[in-house]
Amino acid sequence: MSSLDLRGAADRADLRLDARALAELDEVDRRSAILTWRGRMLNEHVSARVFSALARQLERAGIRGDRRARVAAMVAEEWRHADRCAAVVEVLGGEPVIELPSLPPVPEHEDADPLEAVLRNVISVSCLSETVAVALIDAERRSAGPPALQRLLAEILADEVGHARFGWRLLEELAPSLSPALRERLGDYLVIALDELATHELSHLPARASPSTAAEAVGVCDGHAARRLFFATVHEVIVPGLQASGLPALSAWRAAQATGTWAGAMAGAR
Ligand SMILES: [Fe+2]
Ligand SMILES: [Fe+2]
Fold this sequence. Notes:
Elements: E1 3-5, H1 9-13, H2 19-23, H3 27-60, H4 67-91, E2 97-99, H5 114-143, H6 147-174, H7 180-204, H8 213-217, H9 223-244, H10 249-259, H11 263-269
Antiparallel strand pairs: 1-2
Helix pairs in contact: 3-4, 3-5, 4-6, 5-6, 5-7, 5-9, 7-10, 9-11
The protein binds fe (ii) ion (FE2) (2 copies).
């Protein structure tokens, strides 16, 4: 099995945490923070892989202009995010090395034509996952204690805003030309995509408070607050945004809630 080894990241990012923030962490908090940032490192690596696949799919769908170059830049940004998360692992005293799990291929959607296939992935990646990432990272940035960590999260956040905006703009541009039948099929797809989004996010946001204020200051978030923020982002940003582009997102979200095994978590997060 191969591994992701980003040792030396703290030097590359020139990241130092002040000794006081580190001294406030007990051993349990420190280990918890290392696990959190090592998990983020892996997630960023996965995002880079997803955008690589998206670049190929945009090409196949004949999407022109500078969009393919923009997605290629996003791949590099996700790599840099992985490296920045690795830097935090290092300054916390951990090793930024993680075994790579076997990752499922990025869906090719062979049942759809190239435009519909890429639209499904752009919606799933930018309008869903990256939009949730913007909300969660912004909250983490505001809870971060050390100024160096605030700056690092602000840098990542600025890129994630661009990754989300990319999909929303593309959808907005293409929306007027989408046939009613295609909108309906995208609505069917949204039931699956929203279910997968909730399953994925909730598995990464444990339903527990942050172990301590010191841990929260270095990125171990309050899971209850993060879950509330996740559902608020779906309700207040994602569903209305997709509806505005003529997609039946509200009914898709209701259908996902009716079938998703995570639906009980929503009541608990309110
Ligand atoms: Fe990222
Ligand atoms: Fe991203």
